[in-house]
Specification:
5-stranded mixed β-sheet
Length: about 450
């Protein structure tokens, strides 16, 4: 396989230089040549038979309101979950295969597919297993339909080299124009509780993207049938689409869609344990002047050769503290780059941003005044989980009772406790909006992210 066409996965092939300033380090994620079918022929046959039996029992075929040969358009079948604020969250790793022989050809006459692939694979990016654990990317109905088949309860963290026996968690919808859509590989126990025969509205929640069934990376396998005979169509239209004459999308996404998916700041490089363990991000967004430097990351989709990304660390007043640029070196489907940079020393809220094709992806971070010797970071007190969703736990080593304040980025107090003296305290943060917050406990300060 041409390395320029390798796709996102979990294998890091780069090293880091943590001592040299302004050193650029790349992490390229790719899948080995493991292209076992997402869904076996037997599974297709069983799904078709069960779906047809359910549709007949529900008399759905008699309710088809097909006014023409054209199918109703499709909206995008995945979305960010509420509270998840990354700039983007996916890459397309595989399209429908239009080559009738043993060769491969996608709708655009390219090779983003494998032999016999029947769907569009929308892969989580970056940190796919972290996204599964935190339910960050949801599957939604591409158009209104009735559930004609579904499955749930199967293991949802399959990966390259794993035992791919066992079914996938999925939903199949039948639509009023007679077509069907299939949403496959979802997270265990995340599939909609609506029963077969219930209606799912366009944009309504179906499940969480994961890696159940025959899967080698967390992704949604999205498939479209023209009718109840599993007549395959490809929602993407291009020169080499042999299945349908027009695009089926409400708005078709470009074949190459260069995007900054995420920018982040770390006090150590992220780690990717052996699959199916979850990545450890090691993100950090609060620093003291003594920290001196940090790792600044960007995560890109569809890199272009020699096209620059403009990177900036901006002061609280909007002026530029530091700037540099990075140019693409190949056509990776997904790539992560990092730089070790000197941090500002003046207290305040700063911004790290990356600009590609005029579109900016950014994240704030804060420099706080030097903390007391018994600070969270110096004395190994702990604040977790971070990011947090509903409950924040503080491990507190002092026996002295202290007031606790949680402040938003404007410095406004959003939660206040008069005295905290327990060794471990839990705080209900379910009422806070997603974002960055500052915890002040006595003369200690720390930052956390509310998801």
């Amino acid at each position: 396989m041409n390395k320029k066409l390798l796709f996102a996965s979990l294998f890091v092939i780069a090293t880091y230089n943590l001592t040299a300033q302004n050193t650029e380090s790349d992490i390229v994620y790719h899948t080995p040549d493991d292209h076992s079918a997402c869904i076996s022929a037997l599974e297709y046959a069983e799904m078709l038979q069960q779906s047809n039996e359910n549709a007949s029992r529900l008399n759905l075929n008699g309710k088809i309101q097909k006014k023409s040969t054209a199918l109703e358009p499709l909206d995008w079948p995945v979305k960010k979950a509420d509270g998840f604020n990354d700039c983007d969250y996916y890459i397309i790793t595989k399209h429908v295969d239009h080559d009738k022989t043993t060769g491969i050809k996608d709708y655009n006459c390219g090779a983003r597919t494998y032999d016999g692939h029947r769907g569009t694979d929308i892969t989580l990016w970056p940190y796919p297993f972290y996204k599964i654990d935190h339910n960050q990317v949801e599957v939604v109905a591409a158009k209104t339909g009735v559930i004609v088949n579904k499955a749930d309860g199967f293991f949802d963290k399959k990966c390259v080299g794993s035992d791919n026996s066992g079914g996938g968690n999925y939903v199949m919808l039948q639509h009023s124009d007679g077509s069907r859509t299939l949403y496959y590989h979802m997270k265990k126990n995340s599939v909609t509780t609506k029963a077969i025969g219930a209606t799912i509205l366009k944009g309504e929640y179906i499940g969480v993207v994961a890696s159940s069934g025959s899967s080698n990376i967390p992704h949604l396998h999205f498939e479209v049938w023209a009718d109840n005979k599993a007549t395959l169509v490809d929602p993407f239209y291009g020169t080499c689409n042999t299945l349908n004459a027009t695009s089926l999308w409400t708005t078709q996404k470009p074949y190459l869609d260069p995007t900054i998916s995420k920018v982040s700041i770390h006090n150590a490089k992220p780690t990717s344990p052996a699959c199916p363990e979850t990545e450890v991000l090691n993100e950090k967004y609060t620093f003291v002047p003594e920290d001196y430097e940090a790792l600044f990351y960007i995560h890109k989709r569809d890199e272009e050769i020699d096209v620059p990304v403009y990177l900036r660390i901006k002061n609280p007043n909007g002026s530029v503290f530091n700037s540099w640029e990075s140019k693409g070196t190949t056509t990776w489907n997904g790539i992560t780059r990092s730089w070790l940079k000197t941090l500002p020393t003046q207290p305040g809220i700063y911004t790290f941003e990356a600009e590609l094709h005029g579109k900016v992806c950014s994240t704030p971070f804060e420099i706080v005044a030097t903390l007391a010797t018994n600070s969270f970071e110096k004395n190994q007190n702990r604040l977790y989980p971070n990011p947090a969703q509903n409950i924040l736990t503080i491990d507190w080593n002092s026996n002295e009772p202290e007031p606790l304040f949680i402040k938003n980025q404007l410095g406004q107090i959003v939660i206040q406790k008069s005295k905290i003296n327990e060794s471990k305290t839990t705080i209900d943060i379910s009422g806070l909006s997603p974002g960055l917050y500052l915890v002040q406990l006595g003369n200690e300060t720390h930052k956390f992210i509310k998801e």
